[in-house]
Amino acid sequence: MKWRQLPLGPLQTNAYILHNEQGQCIVFDPGSEGKRLITYLRKHHLHPLAILLTHAHFDHIGAVDEVRNAFSIPVYVHEAEQDWLADTTLNGSSYFGQGSITAKAADCVITEESTLQIGDFTFEVLETPGHSPGSVSYYCKEAGVVFSGDVLFQMSIGRTDLRGGSFHELVLSIEEKLFTLPDDTVVMCGHGPETTIGFEKEHNPFLNA
């Protein structure tokens, strides 16, 4: 499997595309610039099967409806944030001068940690709250990657001063969920460059005090 990182919108939020050799793919966090993302998918003959949201902050959901409608695919979100998609005060867009950013209701609601099978793609769904109450990470063992949204960054961690955030929960999520993954697992961060579990165990200043 291969992946592509596409930083989108004013906050350069990373959308990810994970695809197999047959051109089927999963889209993670289409936060903005829907036309650009759709054009990229069609240009490279990629066929999305679903949109997986790591969480429902405005900068991760801005192009959800455009992409969903273009390919008639389902959207997944955790139950703790299913109401955030349509509420600008919950998803934060009303507080950050981004206008009214919303999306229609998710087609599939994640209620617990589980194995998620979509076509030939298999993910271990990890509940990783702290940045937001419904943050989830999607671990694909076959590809050796985890899509963690704004939980863990290269040499940093997600902010915890937004609605439902908790520094204590965030650290527990990282140490008890993400840091149990193999050290060579590539972390697909919601902003900035990729990193690995092993590197962050050794070098992340927020987790090695």
Note the topology:
Elements: E1 2-8, E2 13-19, E3 24-28, H1 34-43, E4 47-52, H2 58-61, H3 64-71, E5 75-78, H4 88-91, E6 108-110, E7 114-118, E8 121-127, E9 136-140, E10 145-149, E11 152-153, E12 156-157, H5 167-176, E13 186-189, E14 195-196, H6 197-203
Parallel strand pairs: 3-4, 4-5, 5-6, 10-13
Antiparallel strand pairs: 1-2, 2-3, 7-8, 8-9, 9-10, 11-12, 13-14
Helix pairs in contact: 1-3
Helix content: 10-25%
What series of H and E elements makes up the topology? EEEHEHHEHEEEEEEEHEEH
Q: Strand percentage, roughly? A: 25-35%
Q: Largest beta sheet: what is the strand line-up?
A: 1-2-3-4-5-6
Terminal residue distance:
36 Å
Number of strands: 14
The shape is globular
Question: Taking Cα atoms only, what radius of gyration do you get, to the nearest Å?
Answer: 16 Å
Instruction: Give the helix/strand class.
Output: alpha/beta
Global mean pLDDT: 94
- The total of helices stands at 6
Low-confidence stretches: none
Largest sheet: 6 strands, mixed
